[in-house]
């Protein structure tokens, strides 16, 4: 799949933003006044900034408001509902904390739950697609949620929780890669099932001499020789460096800031791979994924 | 709501004969022509006189296949031209993922359509389709797909024989057939039963309405040659050494004189 920068930025930043809102909603930490303002500013910039980035990949933005209509069937619609209700509810909770020094725990808990549901829905948008076997596994929403929680724990200055969640994130992402590598063969789609022709089938001629929307969007071929390197870079920056920084320096502002930056850069690499390595079954009609098919 | 109808009264669709298709791309051109000049946003080209680009609702792929040997006799390799467009699936995954309600499957005839006025161009339905049947038009920014020429098949302003999809109407080889696959007595259903119609990628669980008829096996190969044979010899041998019949009698009679 073509890794669109807007979608990678969206899922990474808004994930961290909703993760921070989750911990603030739970009262970890309970903040009021000026400090609360600082925390919520960061959370809203990340969450809303990410959501705005996702609007950039729409080809017909004027109809974006209609995406709230199909919550009964569509995960993308549900994501929109969860995001807006989480942001509105947490705005009330934040307003009370910043301006009135009042903490209403019930609103916070509800806002935290909705924040987590938003990130889970983001994961399910990808995990529901049977056409992309690498994404079609429970580890997909699992790493979206874990990444959001780990980023939120770092941003909300919960060092112990952050380290546990960062290590958990490394394990979940590692499992997603390991499982993902065999998912295409497990799904069982081959050039034979795609064409229903008998014997050994191969592409003789593409429908067009050039590229088209489908090949550009879904038959994107990453230089696989870099995939292993990128996986190592991702896991080092996303998990190892932040864990070490927090272990050595504790919950001080500068090391935590460095840890957050490193974590987010690592997460960008992980998200880029998530798209670039994903094989869509339509590629079979274009002679792709020959090495990934079940024999 | 982009929920799928539990049943549809009809299952209108195509039956594509892979044995007959010659890969001429006439259906591709007819499809692009009709759907650019009629319902909905036109199918744009990015570089019409340059490198191939643009939106198509129907594309022809070509595959080569080497069938397995039958009783140790090797089979001839085959070339198969493979037209591919929307299969109007009964369990269409493209419809349920749509967040805006633009994608829907009609309960009356099973055609899967996009309401372009409600589409926001997110492209998720194209990701959900295993067959590559949906493409975002790069100019209009909305999702385009085969409509089964819904603006032809019910169109009382055109001649009755024209009321079939443009690709079916134009196919010079008779490789494309249109009809109701829910009716077991329809021409298309009988064709599917007789020739063994196939679902593409059945493991994806989409239950496609469109059916593909397999190519018939080709002639068998004769025994391999050793290299000593003179393949022209049978044709160069004299046809008759002695005249026969009337000419023979005449010849003999003249000899005796």
Automatic annotation (TrEMBL), chain A:
One of its GO terms (cellular component) is plasma membrane. Keywords: Membrane, Transmembrane, Transmembrane helix. One of its GO terms (molecular function) is dimethyl sulfoxide reductase activity. This is Formate-dependent nitrite reductase, membrane component. It comes from Jannaschia donghaensis. The chain crosses the membrane at residues 7-28, 34-58, 79-100, 106-127, 139-155, 161-178, 230-250, 256-274. InterPro entries: DmsC (IPR007059). One of its GO terms (biological process) is anaerobic electron transport chain. The keyword Transferase does not apply.
Automatic annotation (TrEMBL), chain B:
The keyword Metal-binding applies. InterPro entries: 4Fe4S_Fe-S-bd, 4Fe4S_Fe_S_CS, ET_IronSulfur_Cluster-Binding. GO terms for molecular function: 4 iron, 4 sulfur cluster binding; metal ion binding. It comes from the Bacteria. Keywords: 4Fe-4S, Iron, Iron-sulfur, Metal-binding. CDD domains: PsrB. Residues 12-42, 77-108, 110-139 form the 4Fe-4S ferredoxin-type domain. This is Tetrathionate reductase electron transport protein. The keyword Cell division does not apply. The gene is ttrB.
